[in-house]
Design brief:
This protein is mainly β. The chain is built from two helices and 25 strands. It is globular. Pfam families: DUF4221 (PF13970).
């Protein structure tokens, strides 16, 4: 990295006011814009609805209720959603390998059964294993829906008959898919790469609709053009060099996660034309028998619009919910658990030019 042009400043927590029916324990959040306002949507599992908040005020403005039975039922095994507009809410079903289209009344409009989705030879997993969460969001680019996850976590050998990649591009016109974005060379090391720490591959979109791909074990990011199928690689590593290895055995998996770096996610900030690459720093004091994941110290790597590293910052407050994050005009927001169940709470850091 050349001269550091940016740092971050820590601001008061960003909070969203929750009613009695909405939990602060959420896995699926999405931000989008409507009428010049930025909105945050979250799936509220206990009530089977999506709650929508105005980001600026932190107040709820709408609920989208889904049914559990009948012709408009939302399958309980759904994993991830995309609100494209009020008449286009895509819900992905993990075990059905299906994308359902609802409107804001919770009415089912269409089902996209994914075709050409091969089973991995010798196991029950499909490649890729689609896991759309807040850091692996469902997004739409032209006629394609992007579905992101991990390569098969059972079979590491590659078959010529089975396409490689952690990305499915679903063409809404014919429901056919393309497999893209295989693992980089570092993943060829023998051992166990844990699913959510290293195998699931977060991404965001550039303003040009390119996939900016964050491999958790790699110092570099990849920028993939959906139309040309070309990939470019850019260094985006932490200033202190770390060598990341897979666990040598199942017994060492937790240790390998806690004591190593993971590049956890990447987010584009359109207000400042910057990218933020989050990473967890190694943890030496932890208890593997704890039921909840330990809080991790976080750092953020700052890239400019050309994917050049222009800054780095170590965040003071730790979190164990760092995969739930988003960017607004106020800064980068990273989820933490609140002591008060009436609030959904986020650490907030904002870029500062030096």
């Amino acid at each position: 990295m050349g001269k550091q042009l940016y740092t971050m400043v820590e601001l008061p927590h960003k909070v969203f006011l929750l009613d009695d029916s909405t939990t602060q324990i959420v896995n699926h959040i999405q931000t989008y814009e409507r009428n010049d306002s930025q909105l945050l949507a979250l799936y509220n599992e206990p009530i089977n609805n999506i709650c929508i908040f105005d980001v600026k005020s932190g107040k709820e403005i709408q609920k989208i209720q889904f049914q559990k039975e009948g012709p408009n039922a939302l399958d309980p095994n759904f994993c991830g959603f995309l609100i494209h507009n009020k008449d286009s809410i895509f819900m992905y079903h993990t075990w059905l390998w299906q994308l359902d289209l609802f409107n804001e009344k919770g009415e089912l409009q269409k089902k996209y059964k994914i075709k050409d989705y091969p089973l991995e030879s010798g196991c029950s997993f499909r490649r890729p294993d689609i896991l759309p969460y807040s850091d692996t969001p469902i997004k739409k680019v032209d006629n394609y829906i992007i579905l992101q996850g991990q390569g098969c976590n059972v079979c590491d050998s590659q078959s010529n008959q089975i396409p490689e990649g952690v990305t499915l591009l679903l063409n809404l016109k014919d429901s056919l898919v393309r497999h893209e974005n295989g693992y980089p060379e570092i993943y060829n090391q023998k051992g166990i790469w844990q699913t959510f720490a290293y195998r699931v591959v977060p991404y965001d979109l550039s303003p040009q609709g390119e996939m900016v791909i964050n491999y958790p074990a790699d110092d570099s990011i990849r920028v993939f053009n959906i139309h040309t199928k070309k990939t470019q690689c850019y260094f985006a590593g932490y200033s202190k060099p770390y060598t990341i290895h897979p666990a040598r055995s199942e017994k060492e998996v937790d240790r390998s996660i806690m004591e190593q770096v993971q590049y956890t996610s990447i987010y584009y900030d359109k207000w400042n034309q910057l990218y933020y690459r989050l990473l967890t720093l190694p943890l030496s004091d932890y208890d593997v028998n704890e039921k909840s994941a330990p809080k991790r110290n976080l750092a953020v790597i700052i890239l400019d619009k050309y994917f050049q590293k222009v800054g780095e910052y170590n965040i003071k407050e730790p979190s164990n919910r760092f995969s739930r994050a988003f960017v607004s005009s106020e800064g980068l927001h990273i989820n933490i658990l609140s002591d008060n169940d009436d609030y959904l709470t986020f650490i907030t850091v904002k870029p500062k030019k030096l």
